[in-house]
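::Amino acid chain::
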Amino acid sequence: METIHPIIVHFPIALLLTATFISLLAVIFKKKRDELKIVLYWILILGAISVLAALFSGLYEDGRVIHDNAIHQIMEVHKRLGFVIASAFVLITLWFIIRKRKIQLRELLIITLLLIGTSSVLVYSAYLGGKMVYEEGAGVKPMEKYIMEMPGGSMYHHEGGTMHNAGEQVGHEHQGMGKGINTPHDSTDSHEYSHNTDVHSH
């Protein structure tokens, strides 16, 4: 299933932002701190599981989605941010699990600041993900066909960790419309086009 990442990614977004909010409340409200720490504990565990699922599903789809150069540039940044977010979230969760009941206000404040920072990166990464889909058409089947048919477009398709020009997959079907595709007819077509241009110029 090639569209699982957009489904999974909503869980870590919701859980990480909620964890940040709960952690902030635990800092502010001393009387409710113990109860809020228990809630935060479980949200962090669920969030860590979901963020890893989102990361690996994104890496899986990165190798299978046809995209042009503009999408590729955004995707690379989005992917790097995904590693940063997942690493930070998992480390914070492990910290919270190990320390658990021993966490006091000062330590909780540090965790809250780290969650706020990670959430900020997450929001920007989510923006890039939305931009890839809604502005550039990444993963949208009709747009993939359009990308593959763009004259002179740079089209990339990852297979097994290697980036290929997507135009190579369509071969004679698109008759060299993708960048870097050479067919035996190219020189003939170019000659005929040049000849026709000369005739019209007279």
Q: What stands out?
A: Residues 46 and 67 are 32 Å apart (CA to CA). The radius of gyration is 24 Å. The chain has one domain: 5-147.
